[in-house]
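Contributing new records

If you add data, match the layout below exactly. Sequence lines come first and carry their own label; structure lines follow with theirs. Keep one chain per record. Anything else will be rejected by the validation script.
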Amino acid sequence: PIIVVLRDLARFLVAEDQAASPELLWQFIARRLTAQDLSLVIEPLHAQLQEGRVLLLLDGLDELPTGQQRAMVLAVIQAWARRYETCRMLVTCRTLSYQQPDWQLPDVPVVTLAPFSTAQISQFIDAWYHELTRLRLRVPAESTRLAEALHQAMQRPDIARLAPNPLLLTVITQVHTHRGQLPEARAQLYEEAVALLLWRWEEQHVRGKQE
């Protein structure tokens, strides 16, 4: 699997200022690998790509700030699909944005992410805090306590209405991890979620410039 954040790709394409081609996307991937001191995998990875053994994950079509960038990225994706016909691809976009014709990829099947069940929500919370323990970002006892508290918070009607949405559940869990609890008011939860996401996006933006 290869993950490409489309807003980063868009900035790269603007800087290159060339006509859409599959080579541009591959150059972006190769430069990222080189920046991470992984240049030794570029050649074997391309060989896997040629054999149809790569899954390309293109994330955040809806996060492109301008129509020009979106058109450029879509053109490159389509050029890539024509060049690497056996390469499996998944492009993510928020549902509302993708309803607009100029956002769509022609002749590409569209699926919508299904809501989580109660059991899946519970599994997500346990897996989240288990991973924080594994990464040594929380001690086991604290992770257990936080997971139990979040399970309890899921009984709140306002939280229960949001939790089946995987994206919103992720945001709720991030806020809970950051604060140790959820705000009592849903409006305050939204406010803190937006503040946290903006901070993380800014952090990624700064890191992207450094790379």
